[in-house]
Amino acid sequence: MKISEMLNEHKGIISNPTRKDMIILSVKNNEAFPSKCGALATWTSKESTGRSPKDTYIVKRKESEETIDWDSPNNIPLDPETFELIKKDALTSLKNKSTIYVLDRVVGADVSYALPVKTISDKALHVLFIDNMFRPVPEDIEKSVLYNKAFTLISLPYDKLDSSRYEGRLRKTAEGKTSNMAVVIDLDHNIGIVYGSAYCGSTKKLMFSVMNYMLPEAGILPLHCSANEGKDKTTALFLGLSGTGKTTLSADPDRALLGDDEHGWNQNGIANFENGCYAKLINLKKEKEPEIFNAVFHEDDYTNHGAIIENTMMFPDGTFDLFDDRLTPNSRASYPLSYLKNIKEPPVGTHPNTIVFLTADANGVLPPVSNLSTKQAMLWFLMGYTSKLAGTETGIVDPVTVFSRFFGEPFMPRNPDVYANLFGEYIKKYDSKVFLINTGWTGGPFGEGKRIDIDLTRAMISAALNGTLQDVGYHTDTLFHLEIPDSCPDVPAFMLEPKNTWHNPDKYEKRAKKLAQDFSNHFDKVYAAKVPELAEVCPGK
């Protein structure tokens, strides 16, 4: 059965429902509950509190296999026969639903490369999420270079695959059973299927991966970044992995927000892929992040609100505890960009004047701010470094080095040189200044030093954006190949050199060399044969 046939035959289709209808149906169907403020609260089973990277596949076909980096652990191949089985099961399941929802939206605010997406699901809440996150179809969509590559997204968040049908085809779980979940992208037939994952972000990130694959072929650079615009109409980009402050630091009351997660860069400038934000809620403080807090928790009748609060502890009175992570530390909120006070509409901007890479270095050895040359910027873009905190063992928590290429490795299917070279070409062509900002630790690693105060980080970003850091002296860190400013307004000069903040310089040297060696080892293992020209600026070399 073809998708078009299923849609033509189904008698219970609700096509392009209104936003209010999606909200009401989500509550009526017990998919979500109105909270005290009017936002919709929902919870998922434990296997769906985040993405399922081990169950996320790309169909491997001869037409496209050479364009995909199968060496990346995130690009897990799936044979076409198994995909056809999953698609058949999905269409059979949809056929048997009493009601299914169909929503037409696009990904991309620049109509020259907006991708039409038809979402099909049996859950009103998940269709509402798509409405929050993706954009209305523009009248002139036929101008898009992706107009003839319209994508179909099937979402069956609470159905499960019959594991017995997929023995030897899908992965084995830790319990030795065949997985009953699959998130699959067919890049040759423009179909995506989310089967068994109720995490709303699964659909969003699937479409991000699709855009990241399609756009470079048209000479467009996709970026996992947030973007904002100053009063002087200059655009800034912020790239960073989860926990580095990307969403928080781009939500600046003095700058108009284009978006907080996914953008494209072409000859027209920067454009948001999305219509909304999908923000982390854990430990969110109103006084520190008022824009995000008000977007999620402003009061309105539930039939108008439509923000989705996912996996957050809620009290019986409908209020939330944002500091309780017993359900998951990955609690999230989805809301339209229009819920923020200071946004750019449409969310498009000029070529970025400043690009900021954010890293939360829990080792405490990277400088809080550095200036990057074109080649250094390409290297740090390629490596996508941050660190995360491992579990406690005998009372010690040790940082773990994390590399995620282009600050979004799970969603970058193509070979790495494609993205790195496009980035280098664009920053050189449009004279974009690139800075590395460490939002992690100073004075020692986690457990000994302290997290860099967000107000100091904001001061450094402000200096980068307003050009102040172009008028100061610099000195070179030869280990990490970074240019460190000698001064920065409103930041103590001594802390700009991380070694100065450590009580024991020898411990600093040892820790710094270890991190640099992690860089060197990872580069040699993954990139030496693919982008050898960047080896000379890799830390540790």
Describe this structure in words.
The chain has 541 residues and is α/β, with parallel strands linked by helices. It has three domains: 3-41 and 55-219, Phosphoenolpyruvate Carboxykinase, domain 1, CATH 3.40.449; 277-339, Phosphoenolpyruvate Carboxykinase, domain 2 (Beta Complex); 351-537, Phosphoenolpyruvate Carboxykinase, domain 3, CATH 3.90.228. The chain has twelve helices and 30 strands. The strands form seven sheets. Strands 11, 12, 13, 14, 15, 21, 22, 23 and 26 form a nine-stranded mixed sheet that branches. Strands 1-6-7-8-10-9-4-5 form an eight-stranded mixed sheet, sandwiched between helices. A five-stranded mixed sheet has the order 2-3-17-20-16, with helices on both faces. Helix 2 runs antiparallel to helix 4 (124-133). The longest helix is centred in the C-terminal third of the chain and has 22 residues, at 505-526. The model is unreliable at 391-396 (pLDDT under 50).
What's this entry about, in short?
The chain is of the alpha/beta class and 541 residues long. α1 packs parallel to α3, α2 (19-28) packs antiparallel against α4 (124-133) and α9 runs antiparallel to α10 (416-429).
Which characteristics define this entry?
single chain; 541 residues; alpha/beta; Phosphoenolpyruvate Carboxykinase, domain 1; Phosphoenolpyruvate Carboxykinase, domain 2; Phosphoenolpyruvate Carboxykinase, domain 3; nine-stranded mixed β-sheet; eight-stranded mixed β-sheet; 12 helices; 30 strands; 25% strand; globular
